[in-house]
## 1
Amino acid sequence: MRSFDPEELDRIIEMAWEDRTTFEAIEYQFGIAEQEVIELMRQSMKSSSFKMWRKRVTGRKTKHGATSRSLRFRAKCHK
Protein backbone atom coordinates (compact mmCIF):
# COMPACT_ATOMS: atom_id res chain seq x y z
CA MET A 1 0.00 0.00 0.00
CA ARG A 2 1.17 3.49 -0.79
CA SER A 3 2.22 5.71 2.10
CA PHE A 4 0.49 9.05 2.63
CA ASP A 5 1.59 12.20 4.34
CA PRO A 6 -0.36 13.09 7.52
CA GLU A 7 -2.62 15.60 5.74
CA GLU A 8 -3.58 13.09 3.03
CA LEU A 9 -4.18 10.37 5.60
CA ASP A 10 -6.41 12.68 7.66
CA ARG A 11 -8.39 13.62 4.53
CA ILE A 12 -8.86 9.99 3.46
CA ILE A 13 -10.13 9.07 6.93
CA GLU A 14 -12.42 12.09 6.97
CA MET A 15 -13.84 11.20 3.55
CA ALA A 16 -14.31 7.56 4.60
CA TRP A 17 -16.35 8.68 7.64
CA GLU A 18 -18.56 11.00 5.56
CA ASP A 19 -21.81 9.31 4.60
CA ARG A 20 -22.16 10.88 1.18
CA THR A 21 -18.56 10.55 0.00
CA THR A 22 -18.27 7.42 -2.12
CA PHE A 23 -15.36 5.03 -2.14
CA GLU A 24 -15.07 5.85 -5.84
CA ALA A 25 -14.48 9.53 -5.00
CA ILE A 26 -11.70 8.53 -2.61
CA GLU A 27 -10.19 6.32 -5.30
CA TYR A 28 -10.39 9.10 -7.87
CA GLN A 29 -8.73 11.63 -5.57
CA PHE A 30 -6.10 9.41 -3.90
CA GLY A 31 -5.75 6.38 -6.19
CA ILE A 32 -6.71 3.76 -3.60
CA ALA A 33 -9.54 1.25 -4.02
CA GLU A 34 -12.25 0.47 -1.45
CA GLN A 35 -10.36 -2.52 -0.02
CA GLU A 36 -7.27 -0.36 0.49
CA VAL A 37 -9.37 2.29 2.26
CA ILE A 38 -10.71 -0.42 4.57
CA GLU A 39 -7.19 -1.64 5.31
CA LEU A 40 -5.98 1.92 5.91
CA MET A 41 -8.86 2.52 8.31
CA ARG A 42 -8.09 -0.75 10.12
CA GLN A 43 -4.44 0.30 10.59
CA SER A 44 -5.18 3.90 11.55
CA MET A 45 -7.95 3.46 14.08
CA LYS A 46 -8.56 1.76 17.39
CA SER A 47 -10.20 -1.62 16.97
CA SER A 48 -13.51 -0.45 18.46
CA SER A 49 -13.62 2.63 16.19
CA PHE A 50 -12.85 0.53 13.13
CA LYS A 51 -15.63 -1.94 13.99
CA MET A 52 -18.10 0.91 14.47
CA TRP A 53 -17.09 2.42 11.11
CA ARG A 54 -17.36 -0.93 9.29
CA LYS A 55 -20.79 -1.58 10.75
CA ARG A 56 -21.86 1.88 9.64
CA VAL A 57 -20.62 1.72 6.02
CA THR A 58 -21.33 -1.94 5.24
CA GLY A 59 -24.21 -2.05 2.80
CA ARG A 60 -24.67 1.74 2.84
CA LYS A 61 -25.83 2.77 -0.63
CA THR A 62 -24.32 6.24 -0.40
CA LYS A 63 -20.78 4.84 -0.05
CA HIS A 64 -20.89 3.26 -3.52
CA GLY A 65 -21.13 5.38 -6.64
CA ALA A 66 -23.31 2.97 -8.60
CA THR A 67 -26.07 3.16 -5.99
CA SER A 68 -25.58 6.69 -4.71
CA ARG A 69 -27.68 9.59 -5.93
CA SER A 70 -25.27 12.09 -4.40
CA LEU A 71 -23.28 14.26 -6.78
CA ARG A 72 -20.95 15.41 -4.03
CA PHE A 73 -17.29 14.77 -4.90
CA ARG A 74 -18.38 12.95 -8.03
CA ALA A 75 -16.02 13.38 -10.94
CA LYS A 76 -17.35 13.71 -14.47
CA CYS A 77 -16.00 10.25 -15.28
CA HIS A 78 -18.27 8.73 -12.56
CA LYS A 79 -21.68 8.58 -14.20
Note: The chain has a mean pLDDT of 84.
## 2
Amino acid sequence: MVKGTVIQRFRDKESNKAFEVGATYEHQNKERFAELSRNGFITVDENQDSDSNQDSLLNGNAQDVIAALTNDIDPEKLQAFLEEESKGKDRKTVKEHIEALLAKE
Protein backbone atom coordinates (compact mmCIF):
# COMPACT_ATOMS: atom_id res chain seq x y z
CA MET A 1 0.00 0.00 0.00
CA VAL A 2 1.32 3.40 -0.99
CA LYS A 3 0.27 6.42 1.04
CA GLY A 4 0.43 10.10 0.19
CA THR A 5 -1.02 13.52 0.91
CA VAL A 6 -3.43 15.28 -1.42
CA ILE A 7 -1.98 18.57 -2.67
CA GLN A 8 -4.70 19.40 -5.20
CA ARG A 9 -8.38 18.56 -4.86
CA PHE A 10 -9.52 15.74 -7.14
CA ARG A 11 -12.17 13.06 -7.59
CA ASP A 12 -10.73 9.57 -7.91
CA LYS A 13 -11.88 8.02 -11.18
CA GLU A 14 -11.78 4.53 -9.70
CA SER A 15 -13.74 5.09 -6.48
CA ASN A 16 -15.53 8.33 -7.49
CA LYS A 17 -14.57 9.67 -4.05
CA ALA A 18 -13.54 13.33 -3.73
CA PHE A 19 -10.25 14.07 -1.95
CA GLU A 20 -9.58 17.49 -0.42
CA VAL A 21 -6.17 19.15 -0.01
CA GLY A 22 -4.40 17.73 3.04
CA ALA A 23 -6.29 14.43 3.02
CA THR A 24 -4.45 11.12 3.06
CA TYR A 25 -4.68 9.04 -0.12
CA GLU A 26 -3.86 5.33 -0.11
CA HIS A 27 -3.75 2.94 -3.02
CA GLN A 28 -2.39 -0.54 -3.61
CA ASN A 29 -1.56 0.10 -7.26
CA LYS A 30 1.76 1.97 -7.41
CA GLU A 31 1.17 2.86 -11.06
CA ARG A 32 -2.11 4.64 -10.22
CA PHE A 33 -0.41 6.39 -7.34
CA ALA A 34 2.47 7.48 -9.60
CA GLU A 35 -0.03 8.81 -12.17
CA LEU A 36 -1.72 10.99 -9.55
CA SER A 37 1.65 12.17 -8.29
CA ARG A 38 2.90 13.07 -11.79
CA ASN A 39 -0.31 15.00 -12.42
CA GLY A 40 0.18 17.03 -9.24
CA PHE A 41 -2.70 15.68 -7.17
CA ILE A 42 -0.74 13.89 -4.44
CA THR A 43 2.71 13.73 -2.95
CA VAL A 44 4.40 10.73 -1.39
CA ASP A 45 4.52 10.85 2.39
CA GLU A 46 8.11 11.13 3.61
CA ASN A 47 7.83 8.00 5.76
CA GLN A 48 7.38 5.75 2.71
CA ASP A 49 10.08 3.27 1.81
CA SER A 50 12.72 4.22 -0.76
CA ASP A 51 10.90 2.36 -3.56
CA SER A 52 7.85 4.57 -3.03
CA ASN A 53 9.95 7.73 -3.00
CA GLN A 54 10.40 7.25 -6.74
CA ASP A 55 6.84 8.59 -7.03
CA SER A 56 7.76 12.03 -5.66
CA LEU A 57 6.17 15.07 -7.23
CA LEU A 58 9.68 16.27 -8.07
CA ASN A 59 10.44 13.28 -10.31
CA GLY A 60 8.71 14.82 -13.32
CA ASN A 61 10.34 17.13 -15.82
CA ALA A 62 10.84 20.74 -14.67
CA GLN A 63 7.80 22.09 -16.54
CA ASP A 64 5.48 19.45 -15.03
CA VAL A 65 6.90 19.96 -11.55
CA ILE A 66 6.43 23.74 -11.75
CA ALA A 67 2.84 23.28 -12.95
CA ALA A 68 2.12 20.89 -10.06
CA LEU A 69 3.57 23.13 -7.36
CA THR A 70 0.86 25.64 -6.47
CA ASN A 71 -0.10 28.10 -3.73
CA ASP A 72 -2.44 25.41 -2.33
CA ILE A 73 0.53 23.49 -0.94
CA ASP A 74 1.37 24.06 2.71
CA PRO A 75 4.51 26.22 3.18
CA GLU A 76 6.15 23.46 5.23
CA LYS A 77 5.66 21.02 2.35
CA LEU A 78 7.02 23.60 -0.10
CA GLN A 79 10.11 23.98 2.08
CA ALA A 80 10.51 20.19 2.13
CA PHE A 81 10.19 20.12 -1.68
CA LEU A 82 12.84 22.85 -1.93
CA GLU A 83 15.24 20.83 0.24
CA GLU A 84 14.49 17.63 -1.70
CA GLU A 85 15.11 19.41 -5.01
CA SER A 86 18.36 20.94 -3.75
CA LYS A 87 19.65 17.52 -2.68
CA GLY A 88 18.38 15.78 -5.81
CA LYS A 89 18.15 17.16 -9.33
CA ASP A 90 18.91 20.72 -8.13
CA ARG A 91 17.09 22.44 -11.02
CA LYS A 92 17.36 26.23 -10.87
CA THR A 93 13.90 26.86 -12.38
CA VAL A 94 12.16 24.51 -9.98
CA LYS A 95 13.93 25.99 -6.95
CA GLU A 96 13.12 29.55 -8.08
CA HIS A 97 9.45 28.62 -8.48
CA ILE A 98 9.27 27.09 -5.00
CA GLU A 99 11.04 30.11 -3.52
CA ALA A 100 8.57 32.44 -5.26
CA LEU A 101 5.65 30.46 -3.80
CA LEU A 102 7.21 30.65 -0.33
CA ALA A 103 7.73 34.42 -0.70
CA LYS A 104 3.99 34.87 -1.32
CA GLU A 105 3.17 33.37 2.09
Note: The two ends are 34 Å apart (CA to CA).
## 3
Amino acid sequence: MSFRTRARRHPSFVVGGLLTLLLVLAATLSLVWTPHPPAEIDIALKLRPPDATHWLGTDTFGRDVASQLLVGAQASILVGVIAVGIGVLAGVALGCLAAARRGWVEELVMRAADFTFAFPALLTAIMLTAIYGPGLVTSIVAIGIFNIPVFARITRGAANAVWAREYVLAARAAGKSRWRITLDHVLPNIANQLIVQASVSFATAILAEAALSYLGLGTQPPRPSWGRMLSEAQTLLFQAPLLAVWPGVAIVLSVLGLNLMGDGLRDLMDPKLARKR
Protein backbone atom coordinates (compact mmCIF):
# COMPACT_ATOMS: atom_id res chain seq x y z
CA MET A 1 0.00 0.00 0.00
CA SER A 2 1.10 3.58 -0.60
CA PHE A 3 2.14 5.86 2.25
CA ARG A 4 -1.04 7.91 1.86
CA THR A 5 -3.27 4.85 2.12
CA ARG A 6 -1.46 3.55 5.19
CA ALA A 7 -1.58 7.03 6.77
CA ARG A 8 -5.36 7.23 6.37
CA ARG A 9 -5.70 3.86 8.10
CA HIS A 10 -3.44 4.74 11.01
CA PRO A 11 -5.63 6.09 13.86
CA SER A 12 -2.84 7.79 15.82
CA PHE A 13 -1.54 9.60 12.75
CA VAL A 14 -5.03 10.69 11.69
CA VAL A 15 -6.03 12.00 15.13
CA GLY A 16 -2.65 13.65 15.68
CA GLY A 17 -2.68 15.19 12.23
CA LEU A 18 -6.16 16.64 12.76
CA LEU A 19 -5.21 18.16 16.13
CA THR A 20 -2.01 19.60 14.67
CA LEU A 21 -3.93 20.99 11.70
CA LEU A 22 -6.34 22.62 14.15
CA LEU A 23 -3.40 24.30 15.91
CA VAL A 24 -2.00 25.59 12.62
CA LEU A 25 -5.41 26.81 11.45
CA ALA A 26 -5.97 28.67 14.74
CA ALA A 27 -2.63 30.45 14.43
CA THR A 28 -3.21 31.25 10.75
CA LEU A 29 -6.72 32.53 11.37
CA SER A 30 -5.51 34.82 14.17
CA LEU A 31 -3.20 36.56 11.70
CA VAL A 32 -6.16 37.98 9.81
CA TRP A 33 -9.11 37.78 12.21
CA THR A 34 -10.03 37.43 15.89
CA PRO A 35 -13.47 37.87 17.50
CA HIS A 36 -12.14 40.90 19.42
CA PRO A 37 -8.78 42.67 19.70
CA PRO A 38 -6.85 40.32 22.01
CA ALA A 39 -5.22 43.14 24.03
CA GLU A 40 -8.39 45.26 24.34
CA ILE A 41 -9.15 45.93 28.02
CA ASP A 42 -12.69 46.60 29.24
CA ILE A 43 -12.88 46.39 33.04
CA ALA A 44 -16.68 46.68 32.91
CA LEU A 45 -16.79 43.26 31.18
CA LYS A 46 -14.26 41.45 33.39
CA LEU A 47 -14.87 37.79 34.28
CA ARG A 48 -17.83 37.58 31.96
CA PRO A 49 -19.07 34.00 31.34
CA PRO A 50 -19.23 32.60 27.80
CA ASP A 51 -21.98 34.17 25.69
CA ALA A 52 -22.77 35.05 22.09
CA THR A 53 -20.41 38.06 22.16
CA HIS A 54 -17.51 36.53 24.05
CA TRP A 55 -17.54 32.84 23.12
CA LEU A 56 -15.22 31.72 25.93
CA GLY A 57 -15.84 34.62 28.29
CA THR A 58 -13.46 37.36 29.42
CA ASP A 59 -10.56 37.48 31.86
CA THR A 60 -9.91 39.68 34.88
CA PHE A 61 -9.11 42.66 32.61
CA GLY A 62 -12.13 42.17 30.36
CA ARG A 63 -10.07 40.78 27.47
CA ASP A 64 -11.69 38.23 25.17
CA VAL A 65 -10.40 34.74 26.04
CA ALA A 66 -11.14 33.23 22.61
CA SER A 67 -9.09 35.93 20.88
CA GLN A 68 -6.19 35.41 23.27
CA LEU A 69 -6.25 31.65 22.67
CA LEU A 70 -6.11 32.14 18.91
CA VAL A 71 -3.22 34.60 19.06
CA GLY A 72 -1.46 32.47 21.70
CA ALA A 73 -1.20 29.70 19.13
CA GLN A 74 1.14 31.95 17.13
CA ALA A 75 3.70 32.04 19.95
CA SER A 76 3.52 28.27 20.40
CA ILE A 77 4.13 27.56 16.71
CA LEU A 78 6.82 30.25 16.41
CA VAL A 79 8.76 28.85 19.35
CA GLY A 80 8.31 25.27 18.12
CA VAL A 81 9.44 25.95 14.55
CA ILE A 82 12.48 28.09 15.38
CA ALA A 83 13.63 26.15 18.45
CA VAL A 84 13.32 22.80 16.67
CA GLY A 85 14.97 24.33 13.62
CA ILE A 86 17.96 25.36 15.75
CA GLY A 87 18.16 21.85 17.16
CA VAL A 88 17.91 20.21 13.74
CA LEU A 89 20.47 22.42 12.00
CA ALA A 90 23.11 22.41 14.72
CA GLY A 91 22.40 18.97 16.18
CA VAL A 92 22.28 17.11 12.87
CA ALA A 93 25.48 18.80 11.71
CA LEU A 94 27.30 17.86 14.92
CA GLY A 95 25.92 14.32 14.87
CA CYS A 96 27.01 13.79 11.27
CA LEU A 97 30.44 15.24 12.08
CA ALA A 98 30.85 12.86 15.01
CA ALA A 99 29.80 9.82 12.95
CA ALA A 100 31.95 10.77 9.96
CA ARG A 101 35.16 11.66 11.78
CA ARG A 102 34.94 9.30 14.80
CA GLY A 103 37.85 9.22 17.25
CA TRP A 104 38.50 12.33 19.33
CA VAL A 105 36.03 14.40 17.28
CA GLU A 106 33.16 12.07 18.17
CA GLU A 107 34.23 12.01 21.80
CA LEU A 108 34.41 15.81 21.95
CA VAL A 109 30.96 16.26 20.38
CA MET A 110 29.33 13.69 22.68
CA ARG A 111 30.92 15.13 25.83
CA ALA A 112 29.77 18.60 24.79
CA ALA A 113 26.25 17.16 24.36
CA ASP A 114 26.45 15.63 27.84
CA PHE A 115 27.51 19.01 29.25
CA THR A 116 24.59 20.77 27.53
CA PHE A 117 22.16 18.21 28.96
CA ALA A 118 23.15 19.46 32.41
CA PHE A 119 21.38 22.73 31.61
CA PRO A 120 17.69 22.08 30.80
CA ALA A 121 15.65 24.66 28.93
CA LEU A 122 14.26 26.18 32.13
CA LEU A 123 17.68 26.69 33.71
CA THR A 124 19.08 28.07 30.47
CA ALA A 125 16.15 30.48 30.21
CA ILE A 126 16.76 31.69 33.76
CA MET A 127 20.42 32.37 32.98
CA LEU A 128 19.58 34.15 29.72
CA THR A 129 16.85 36.15 31.45
CA ALA A 130 19.33 37.38 34.04
CA ILE A 131 21.54 38.67 31.20
CA TYR A 132 19.14 39.80 28.48
CA GLY A 133 15.77 39.96 30.24
CA PRO A 134 12.64 37.82 29.72
CA GLY A 135 10.95 37.51 26.34
CA LEU A 136 9.97 35.29 23.46
CA VAL A 137 13.49 35.33 22.01
CA THR A 138 14.88 34.11 25.33
CA SER A 139 12.48 31.16 25.26
CA ILE A 140 13.37 30.29 21.68
CA VAL A 141 17.12 30.38 22.33
CA ALA A 142 16.86 28.37 25.56
CA ILE A 143 14.68 25.65 24.03
CA GLY A 144 16.77 25.62 20.86
CA ILE A 145 20.00 25.09 22.83
CA PHE A 146 18.39 22.21 24.70
CA ASN A 147 17.34 20.58 21.40
CA ILE A 148 20.87 20.59 19.93
CA PRO A 149 22.26 17.65 21.98
CA VAL A 150 19.02 15.72 21.49
CA PHE A 151 19.37 15.76 17.71
CA ALA A 152 23.16 15.34 17.90
CA ARG A 153 22.80 12.08 19.85
CA ILE A 154 20.05 10.68 17.63
CA THR A 155 21.91 11.65 14.45
CA ARG A 156 25.19 10.20 15.63
CA GLY A 157 23.61 6.87 16.66
CA ALA A 158 21.61 6.47 13.46
CA ALA A 159 24.52 7.62 11.27
CA ASN A 160 26.92 5.15 12.86
CA ALA A 161 24.56 2.33 11.90
CA VAL A 162 24.49 3.55 8.29
CA TRP A 163 28.28 3.91 8.15
CA ALA A 164 28.56 0.18 8.90
CA ARG A 165 26.40 -0.82 5.91
CA GLU A 166 27.89 -2.52 2.86
CA TYR A 167 26.94 0.19 0.34
CA VAL A 168 28.72 2.81 2.43
CA LEU A 169 31.82 0.62 2.59
CA ALA A 170 31.61 0.25 -1.18
CA ALA A 171 31.33 4.04 -1.58
CA ARG A 172 34.41 4.53 0.58
CA ALA A 173 36.29 1.94 -1.46
CA ALA A 174 35.31 3.84 -4.62
CA GLY A 175 37.04 6.93 -3.28
CA LYS A 176 34.06 9.03 -2.15
CA SER A 177 34.87 11.58 0.53
CA ARG A 178 33.26 11.34 3.97
CA TRP A 179 31.15 14.45 3.38
CA ARG A 180 29.90 13.19 0.01
CA ILE A 181 28.94 9.88 1.65
CA THR A 182 27.18 11.78 4.43
CA LEU A 183 25.14 13.81 1.93
CA ASP A 184 24.42 10.99 -0.53
CA HIS A 185 23.92 8.02 1.76
CA VAL A 186 23.78 8.85 5.47
CA LEU A 187 21.33 11.76 5.63
CA PRO A 188 18.73 10.24 3.26
CA ASN A 189 18.72 7.03 5.31
CA ILE A 190 18.30 8.71 8.70
CA ALA A 191 15.82 11.40 7.57
CA ASN A 192 12.83 9.35 8.76
CA GLN A 193 14.12 9.19 12.32
CA LEU A 194 14.89 12.91 12.31
CA ILE A 195 11.39 13.78 11.08
CA VAL A 196 9.80 11.72 13.85
CA GLN A 197 12.06 13.30 16.47
CA ALA A 198 11.29 16.78 15.13
CA SER A 199 7.54 16.24 15.64
CA VAL A 200 8.10 15.02 19.20
CA SER A 201 10.51 17.89 19.94
CA PHE A 202 7.92 20.34 18.57
CA ALA A 203 5.47 19.14 21.22
CA THR A 204 8.13 19.45 23.91
CA ALA A 205 8.93 22.99 22.74
CA ILE A 206 5.27 24.04 23.05
CA LEU A 207 5.15 22.62 26.57
CA ALA A 208 8.42 24.30 27.51
CA GLU A 209 7.27 27.66 26.14
CA ALA A 210 4.07 27.41 28.17
CA ALA A 211 6.08 26.60 31.30
CA LEU A 212 8.48 29.52 30.75
CA SER A 213 5.60 31.94 30.11
CA TYR A 214 3.85 30.63 33.22
CA LEU A 215 6.94 31.58 35.24
CA GLY A 216 7.17 34.97 33.55
CA LEU A 217 10.30 34.15 31.56
CA GLY A 218 8.69 33.66 28.16
CA THR A 219 6.27 35.71 26.06
CA GLN A 220 5.66 39.09 27.67
CA PRO A 221 2.50 41.25 27.76
CA PRO A 222 0.64 42.45 25.83
CA ARG A 223 1.27 39.47 23.51
CA PRO A 224 -0.99 36.58 24.59
CA SER A 225 0.53 33.28 25.69
CA TRP A 226 -1.17 30.12 26.88
CA GLY A 227 1.28 29.73 29.75
CA ARG A 228 0.77 33.27 31.00
CA MET A 229 -3.01 32.84 30.71
CA LEU A 230 -2.70 29.87 33.10
CA SER A 231 -0.55 31.93 35.45
CA GLU A 232 -3.08 34.78 35.52
CA ALA A 233 -5.98 32.35 36.07
CA GLN A 234 -4.51 30.48 39.04
CA THR A 235 -5.71 33.08 41.56
CA LEU A 236 -9.25 32.85 40.16
CA LEU A 237 -9.72 29.06 40.16
CA PHE A 238 -12.75 29.20 42.45
CA GLN A 239 -14.18 32.43 41.05
CA ALA A 240 -13.72 31.72 37.32
CA PRO A 241 -12.33 28.18 36.80
CA LEU A 242 -12.89 28.27 33.04
CA LEU A 243 -10.08 30.81 32.68
CA ALA A 244 -7.63 28.02 33.52
CA VAL A 245 -9.52 25.34 31.59
CA TRP A 246 -9.31 26.95 28.13
CA PRO A 247 -5.52 27.48 27.88
CA GLY A 248 -4.95 24.14 29.62
CA VAL A 249 -7.07 22.34 27.05
CA ALA A 250 -5.27 24.17 24.22
CA ILE A 251 -1.86 23.06 25.52
CA VAL A 252 -2.99 19.47 26.10
CA LEU A 253 -4.57 19.09 22.65
CA SER A 254 -1.58 20.64 20.88
CA VAL A 255 0.99 18.46 22.67
CA LEU A 256 -1.22 15.37 22.34
CA GLY A 257 -1.72 15.96 18.62
CA LEU A 258 2.00 16.35 17.90
CA ASN A 259 2.91 13.29 19.99
CA LEU A 260 0.27 11.15 18.30
CA MET A 261 1.42 12.34 14.90
CA GLY A 262 5.01 11.55 15.85
CA ASP A 263 4.04 8.03 16.94
CA GLY A 264 2.13 7.57 13.72
CA LEU A 265 5.05 8.78 11.61
CA ARG A 266 7.36 6.38 13.43
CA ASP A 267 5.08 3.46 12.58
CA LEU A 268 4.52 4.55 8.99
CA MET A 269 8.19 5.18 8.26
CA ASP A 270 9.46 1.96 9.82
CA PRO A 271 9.70 -0.60 6.98
CA LYS A 272 9.19 -3.53 9.37
CA LEU A 273 6.03 -2.08 10.87
CA ALA A 274 4.82 -1.02 7.42
CA ARG A 275 5.05 -4.63 6.19
CA LYS A 276 3.10 -5.85 9.21
CA ARG A 277 0.33 -3.41 8.44
Note: The domain at 82-276 is CATH 1.10.3720.10 (MetI-like fold).
